[in-house]
Amino acid sequence: MTPQPDVYSDLAAEGEDVDRMLAGLDAETWARPTPAPGWTIAHQVAHLAATFRLAALAVAEPKAFQQVTARLSPDFDANVRHALASYLADPPDVLLSRWREERAGVEKALAAVSPDQLVPWLVRPLPAGVLAAAGMMELFGHGQDIADALGVHRERTDRIRHLVGFAVRTWDFGYLARGLEVPAVQLRFEITAPSGAQWTFGPADSPERVSGPAVDLCLLVTRRRHRADLALTAIGDEADRWLDIAQAYRGPAGPGRAPGQFADATR
């Protein structure tokens, strides 16, 4: 995946979209549960704020980032709880302000480097533009949880091409997160953008193929919808298996969403 030149501005635009859902919410609504078990809207925003703070550090101060990550616990969930704690201690108006500051911080840090420049990250170094695409993945997934909690339908644009490309780049994460051997295959992706444009990735002659709407692919790899509720098609045994385990992040897979949980939702 070659970083797209507009990934930084698209990351900022996606952040603004999430922000618009949050502006004006009262304290009671911030405490509303989301589809992620045990997580309220405040938890979702705290996670985004903590992630963007870490990303800004990785870009602007790589050595400091490496010192921070060297102190992380082997317990993934414990790390998440620790990262969220200081944000969740704040009232909603302060949390919203801090989330905005963390977004501005990572946008400023990214603007100072080329999208092709390697920066350290949690699993392996990434081009800065790919790290920005990972940020879009976080905004897509956690933003969807917020939207589901609020009953909001999100209008998607072709900006999600960055996330589709990131999903293709990290296609093996579903195997690695479960301790499974990564198969020696190359998947072909034939994806329809929100605009109707066709995006293709992988060898054209691969017998293992995944096709369908880009929005559905993004919902799948962020594990915000079960494959049964999506219009994705697999050809080939491994492609079909991949639809069951796909994820675009390396943390524990978690339970995901149940089949039929969002069957009647308008995509």
Largest sheet report: 4 strands, mixed
The topology string of helices and strands comes to: HHHHHHEEHHHEEEHEH
Q: Give the CATH superfamily of the largest domain.
A: dinb family like domain
CATH level 1 name of the largest domain: Mainly Alpha
CATH architecture of the largest domain: Up-down Bundle
Estimated radius of gyration: 18 Å
Spatial arrangement of strands, main beta sheet:
4-3-5-6
Number of domains: 2
- Give the distance, in angstroms, between the N- and C-terminal Cα atoms: 27 Å
The 3D shape can be described as globular
Low-confidence parts: none
Helix/strand/pairing class, anyone? alpha+beta
- State the helical fraction: 40-55%
Q: What fold name stands as the CATH topology of the largest domain? A: Four Helix Bundle (Hemerythrin (Met), subunit A)
Q: Beta-sheet strand percentage?
A: 5-15%
Strand element count: 6
Task: Note the total helix count.
Answer: 11
Mean pLDDT, to the nearest integer, reads 94
Give your account of this protein's structure.
The protein has two domains: 7-154, dinb family like domain (Four Helix Bundle (Hemerythrin (Met), subunit A), Up-down Bundle); 161-245, Nonspecific Lipid-transfer Protein, Chain A (2-Layer Sandwich). The two termini are 27 Å apart. With 267 residues, the protein is α+β, with helices and mostly antiparallel strands. The chain contains eleven helices and six strands. The strands form two sheets. A four-stranded mixed sheet has the order 4-3-5-6. A two-stranded antiparallel ribbon has the order 1-2.
